[in-house]
Design brief:
The protein is of the alpha+beta class and 272 residues long. It has one domain: 4-Layer Sandwich (Deoxyribonuclease I, Chain A), CATH 3.60.10.10. It has 7 helices and 15 strands. Helix 3 packs parallel to helix 4 (175-185). The protein starts with a strand and ends in an 8-residue tail after the last helix. The structure holds one DNA strand of 18 nucleotides.
Length: 272
DNA sequence: ATGCCCTATGATATAGGA
């Protein structure tokens, strides 16, 4: 099973590239972020035409997440348990579903803007709600493969940005944000590290200043997987080619291949 | 080369991104 996550920075602006990429990469499950459209405006029909079921959570101009699946799309959950509001609004930033026996969450973690900003506190509260929501699912079904995938808007380590000195005083690299990710990992989730097809394993490069070809990237699109998921991973890579050329998103897809059948074999009687 | 910001919106400026 091939599972991918991609912040598309507007699904309508990216539609041609998204459809072409689905045909090229042949993912079974895709988590999308930054749809920038309401549910009614999501291009459901052309995606369905490629064999995918679609679940979306979008309200309009900002945010928005979706799950596409051609291996079943069940138990859809919209939003987090105890999800905080921002300026009185419930923002569309998380959608969960069970796809072919694998529990998947597509998340678009708040940016935070700058340390001390209301949005920064909101980001930390949001990550705490994510931990509560996923923690309950892991407790209820500990042997089911599960992964949180999406744009976490946090670089887990200094090696996940091209130059840490540039980020002094900025969001994405602060200790509280990294602690929030550590708290997620405390649930038993592992950071599945994708290989880079070229250069460093970054997933985002700013549109400005030729960041892509200068190597000014960040690894902020992550795959946080429980043991049943992580143990089934056979490959993981960043599809940097999708960041190239005209009409690209500023994020590249992260692709994970799973051998779910092998993982499902009971441990009892196994060779190791 | 991959090449120097992009997207949606009560739009001809602005907010947000990270």
């Amino acid at each position: 099973m091939r599972i991918a996550t991609w912040n598309v920075n507007s699904v309508t602006a990216r539609l041609d590239r998204l459809l072409a990429w689905l045909e090229l990469a042949q993912p079974d499950v895709v988590a999308l972020q930054e749809l920038k459209c309401a549910d009614a405006a999501f291009p459901t029909m052309p995606v369905q035409a490629l064999g995918y079921e679609v679940a979306t959570l979008g309200t309009g101009r900002w945010n928005g997440v979706a799950l596409l699946s051609r291996v079943g799309l069940d138990e859809v959950t919209h939003g987090l348990t105890g999800q905080p509001q921002y300026e009185g609004a419930d923002e569309p930033r998380a959608i969960g579903a069970t796809c072919g026996g694998v529990r998947v969450w597509s998340v678009y973690v708040p940016n935070g803007r700058e340390p001390g900003h209301d949005h920064y506190g909101y980001k930390l509260e949001w990550l705490a709600a994510l931990r509560v929501t996923v923690g309950a699912e892991l407790t209820a079904e500990p042997s089911r493969p599960l992964a949180i995938i999406g744009d976490f808007n946090v670089a887990p380590t200094d090696d996940d940005v091209w130059d840490i000195s540039v980020f002094e005083g900025s969001t994405h690299v602060t200790e509280p944000e990294r602690q929030a990710l550590a708290d997620l990992r405390e649930l038993g989730l592992a950071d599945v590290l994708p290989r880079a097809l070229k250069g460093n394993p970054y997933t985002f490069w700013d549109y400005r200043n030729g960041a892509l070809h200068r190597g000014w990237g960040m690894r902020i699109d992550l795959v946080y997987a429980n043991p049943a998921f992580a143990g089934a991973v056979t490959d993981a890579y960043i599809d940097r080619d999708e960041r190239k050329g005209k009409g690209a998103s500023d994020h590249a897809p992260v692709v994970v291949d799973l051998d779910v059948a092998a993982q499902a074999i009971p441990a009892a009687g196994a060779e190791r």
